[in-house]
Amino acid sequence: MRNAKKWLGVILAAAMTVSLAACGGGSTGQKGGDSGKSGDQSQATENETRLVACSTGFEQKFSPFFAQNVDDQRFVGLTQILLMNVDRVSNPVLNGIEGETREYNGTEYTYTGPADIVVTENSDGTVTYDVKMRDDIKFSDGEPVTIDDVIFSLYVYADPTYNGSTTLYSSPIKGMAEYREGMSTLSALIGAAGEDNTDFSLWTEEQQKAFWDAVNDGGVKFCEEIQAYFGDESMSMKDAAANWGFDLEDGATAKDFFIAIGNQYGWNFSDMEKETAGTALADLIPADVYDYPTIGVSTGDSAANISGIVKTSDYSMTITTTELDASFIYQLGFYVAPLHYYGDTSKYDYDNNKFGFDKGDLSTVRAKTTEPLGAGPYVYKSYSNGTGYLESNPSYYEGAPATRYLNFIDTQEADKVPGIQTGTIDIADPTYSTEIASQIAEINGLSDPNEFDGDIITTKLIDFRGYGYIGISADNVKVGDDPASEESKALRKAIGTVIAAYRDEAIDSYYGSTASVINYPISNTSWAAPQVTDDGYQLAYSKDVDGNDIYQGGETGDEKYDEALQAALGYFEKAGYTVEGGKLTAAPAGAKLEYQVNIGGGGTGDHPSFLLLKNAADAFAKIGLTLTVNDLANASDLYSSYQTGVAEMWCAAWQSGSDPDMYQLYHSKGSTNYYKINDEDLDDLIITARQSTDQNYRKGLYKAAMEIIMDWGVEIPIYQRSEAYVFSTERVNLDTIPTDMTPYFGWADGIKTLAAK
Q1: Contact partners, residue 401, CB within 8 Å, separation at least 6
Q2: Average pLDDT over every residue of 37-63
Q3: Positive or negative, the Cα torsion across 495, 500, 502, 506?
Q4: How far apart, in whole angstroms, are the C-alpha atoms of residue 677 and residue 484?
Q5: Which of 92, 369, 406, 494 could be cross-linked to 568 through a Cys-Cys bond (beta carbons 3.0 to 4.6 Å apart)?
Q6: Closest listed residue to residue 79, CA positions, set 397, 386, 392
Q7: CA 436 – CA 444 distance, rounded (Å)
Q8: Closest CA to 620 of 550, 571, 552
Q9: Whole-angstrom distance, CA of residue 9 vs CA of residue 297
Q10: What is the pTM of this model?
Q11: Dihedral (C-alpha) 740, 743, 748, 752: value to the nearest 10 degrees?
């Protein structure tokens, strides 16, 4: 839902890798007689175990191509293999055949995969990815996995009518644009032509009428629901659209809003579902019209193949891009699906530009949406009454999993923890909070909710793939007219120095041990995140105006706060403030003695940064600066305040993608550069990092970029919160749970050895 994304201030970097780390599930060790029937796993024979995983709602799109719902992706992912895997910090594993050993949190881990990938930057600016696959992998039906299956999968993702979640078609693969041109979808063509179109050479008048009838009815209702979401009857459709991220003209209608959504998503109705305020678009427009994005219409000539995709042997190929795009490597983390099952082998002839289906017609692929087949660790057996049944794949290339049966069962959020207690499920992924921690402690008979190991439930925390921050607008908090001046930077660093000092106490009070303070503007889950052991690592805003450490270590809380306040006075003085007797008595031109920070605490202070801001405001008052903490009851008011450039300061959170590219957030031309940072050196670092595939080199560039961001004083990193997997202590062999789990490497990535007691 868009409102959820807006609330978090989420920016999703381009990354399509679907990892099993996202799975939530569990294991039980019941033993008994085996019925031998597919899908009937209520009992298991001696030494055969059953895993029961919780889900929160299947759509039954169990296709490696079309699964979109998180639960569907979790389920189908266990039946498939990815061409390329990633490690615990989402760093690509390029030597999958022999494996790569990498250190994480002081422990060495070896990662494998089905292929080796060699990246070569060519003198003409193109980049070639040489892919060599293992020759011993089989699909669960015994058929070998070859490079033809990879090529078939690539062409499905590249088809003009493909409307799944993978965005490989937008990547700079050589010849991709030429292959996709000359064909469009029925919905895109009718949407672009408009309701008054009279040219019916490419579609019928009846099809056009059905389309616009659907827009005028279901489309209008879709946008009216968005408007109603804000609970303000006086809000115009233009303002509702603005709060939803769309810029409309005065007097805009719900239909105008829906057309804007359609244009943004190329009239791909399944993609437009992302903008829902509650009701699915599929429930508002007729099914035949909803399928218009799947109907290809030829509009002219196009290339017969994608020239950058070249088969070199039965188990090897090359993919060439027209330019270096550092994030493209993540596009290679796609599912390798069987041509013989999802396609038509009679329509595959690589040498004659036939790739397993007719271009613009993915009907054979869509026909298998509810019954997946792949080369993954598990085999799909059946789905009924909210439960999906999987069985271990004896021909899995890394060996059959230790646990034979795996079920996914629909579970309400409130039932996840009790479900482990009662034995209904064995591993769950509840939305973690202090309330959940207390509930688990009570079930375990423990008084301390920070004790994670109990006789009934064991909790494993992992860092959430994102972080909370406080932003400062360089345009609105500055000295004079230059937000880039040393005086303006000093003003913002004075504010950041005091606020940063109060982070530990506030985050501990709100989250307890389920969150930690961070010191750089990046999630700790990213491979580019600076580590405490790295040279030059330092606490955020812990240097005074002369570059000396503010804190010597061992200070009490009050001593620390006093030291921060004195350091801030030095920055204020550098900014041009008049300081007399330890107080600010006058502000320089363009600056003020009062600033406001917006926070979305629902009007009740329910926000992890609320306490630290109130404490910082009290501290600022001692030296003559007023910091007003504006607690907004309506989330839309919060994000519209900083997205429109009005806010001086605000509290929000970013969600990180697999690649740490900083362009959108911090480049001077970034679409979500709400900080209004404009630094040529920073821009150069961001662009240079995009133009390299060397991870160590890029990490160094991003560290330098983050130091510039901190020097501008436009962002105060606050916290990294936790998510959790909870396990049945009674039924799961805890020694077989993967150690050091992360958002990119969860229990299912260790499925081969995960076992029940």
Answers
A1: 377, 378, 392, 393, 751, 752, 753, 754
A2: 68
A3: positive
A4: 8
A5: 494
A6: 392
A7: 12
A8: 571
A9: 37
A10: 0.78
A11: -40
